[in-house]
Amino acid sequence: GRKLNIWSTQTYDGPVIAGSVPGRVVDLSVRPSVTVATGDGAIMINTVQFEGAEVVGAAEVVRSVSDTLGR
To answer: How many beta carbons lie within 10 A of that of residue 57, not counting itself?
Structure first.
């Protein structure tokens, strides 16, 4: 696997995401961010960077690997 750096995030102020497994992507609708479940709710990940690549919106990366994730 490749190293993935998370460059920017923000708090998630949406509805409570009950029963979600921490680490699971729960929403892709707020581009370029993805909302990821945590132990205490959720966080929005805005920009990421694979090692050796340019910084991009997190949703772009999730969509590019969606077949690998079994979506």
So the answer is: 17
